[in-house]
Amino acid sequence: MTNLFSAPFAKVHPYALFYTTVSNVNNMPTTLLSGNEWGIAEKIGHGPAVGAGVSIDHRRSVCLGKDIRSTQEKEKNVSRAVALKKDVTIKPSKATVGVFCASDPRIDEESRQRCVNIVKQVADHVADSIDSVDVVYAPLLVDGEPQADAVAQQFKESGVNVLICTPDTWAFPQLSVLSLLSHFPKDIPINFTCGNSGPKPGVVFAHAINGAVAQYGKLSHLNVGSWPDTGSNPPMSEATGRALVDWVHAAATKVALRGRRVVVFGHDSMGMETALAHVIPTRNVFGIEIARLDMKLLADMLRKEAYDKKECKALRAWIDKQLGERLEVPSEEDSERFDQSLAMYLIVRDLMNDLNAVGGGFMSQLEWGSDARGIPLPVADAMESLFNSTFDHNGVKPVLPFATEADVQGLLTMLFMSHLTDGNPPLFMDFRKVWEPWELNALAKDVGEYDANALWAKKGLVDGDNSGSASLNWAAKQGASVAEIMQNVSMPLADEGYFPGLGNSVTFVSPEGLEGIASRLSYSALSNMFSLTWDEACTVELPPKLSNAVCNASTATWPHTFVVPKYATMVEYKQVPPANHFHMVTGLSPARLEYWMDLANVLSATPWAARPSYLEDTDRPIPLIYTQNGGEDATKMMLGKKM
């Protein structure tokens, strides 16, 4: 008999369930045990069973061993309100994944144990692959309604907000999974992962339950993968596990950001309506709040020097050490302005921390630093770059996606992409100049650096170039040290034409070989929906003279990232941007992004003629609910009307 009180508590928590004996399979009468009669079933699947919940703390699984009926009788006539604590530590929102399996009480014991082993294997794989989620699993197989109620109760008590079902045998949809789902909100993400095994076909049940769920209008994702037909512990294939992890990342992003907020200083910069804070749609679709703070608060705090002056000196000393003469401060006034920019970073950081924010934005032009009728203040480029980077003067830190020009739709794009990659630094860029191949090649010939075999010569490129929000990480290849990154960064004086308040810009040229997704979120009142224009993309380097010529064709003192989309031509690319800004993150696969767009009900905009509608081993499988309702866009629009 397992001793629960000696079992160590791990990241994945198996539920220790008390099983009751059942005398009749059809009627399923139950006997509740009490006192010393409580115990753990020595064999999983000892007939149809009713599970009672257990209490789990951060050390071990603890079983409740009292007579439920006597406790209920004692409390029947007692009514009391419980006061919650006044002092509460706010914990970051997390996804908690609940893994379970449906089965049939008539299945043989060996097959049932195999089901339990698969549940644990899947739970362990998710827990080992994604640090940002908690995982619990149920060794009680969901044979029918009582088991569904028992597992659902324990999942809810553990805060489960993402579900994975791993069928390996036949089961009955309504008696098992549908009964369990009835305990949860309709929009809870659910994934059915199974092998394509034939002996007691779990894949048959997976298709049955996936179809049943789609029938009543709920989205689910089916992952028909591969594991051996035989053996007690059949290992998942690498592709099965990868698809599952991509889906969990997407589900975790959806649920973990619900109820969070971003902080935006000022209104949309320069009246750029594509940067608008669509407060109500953002709340309804993503569950994200947009806290709007007045620029005057920041200006007042800067004037009052409401920040830690000792830390500001430490930040300046760190910048001086990293950049040396690449920090351009020719006069004492320039040095003071740069210090103000660093003080802004500390003030805004603390304000966002006070509000428990997950991202931010800053108007800059015209309200802050560009209208000469007022008192122009120093540019915020250094502040914005630090927020989007994985380090500052205090060492390694989480990325806090931050948008220049108070571009909220750009901020949301970066926020979602960063969370989908467990915190990779996003890049904020102007869609500054699209160089078609003919134009770029003509310039290359003029400077004597033409290379017909180079990717940029064949495809052309976009010069991503914007003052502010350029993550410092993008100045070097992935895995580079802080010293290596900062060696490529300069901070010249700001362009007075843009920023009469002066200060310093941030500049670098991104290296070749950074790969990921370039994208932009946008909103349309016509459909009342968000859409994401995206493509796989990589960065390229240009020969020195050509690179210098391209940089000087726009604003040379700002960061430059030369982006080449995988499928879009430059003619297509320059005609469909939904805004003047676009964004990129490394380490994001199309499948993971598509799973998130499904779960968030965001339209996928990839109008590239060269990209097929479905790429095997690249895209996620198309959900059944889409094929039944006229396609992905049509279904998402129908679902959108219910939001």
Structure commentary:
It is a single chain. The protein is α/β, with parallel strands linked by helices and 643 residues long. Helix content is 34%, strand content 16%. It is built from 20 helices and 21 strands. The strands form 5 sheets. The protein has a 6-stranded parallel β-sheet, sandwiched between helices. Strands 15-16-19-18-17-20 form a 6-stranded antiparallel beta barrel. Strands 10-9-11-14 form a 4-stranded parallel β-sheet, sandwiched between helices. The model is unreliable at 1-11 and 13-71 (pLDDT under 50).
Write out key terms for the chains shown:
alpha/beta, disordered N terminus, globular, 20 helices, 6-stranded antiparallel barrel, 643 residues
Approximate strand percentage: 15-25%
Question: How far do the termini sit from each other?
Answer: 50 Å
Number of helices, counting only DSSP H or I runs of 4 residues or more? 20
Poorly predicted spans: 1-11, 13-71
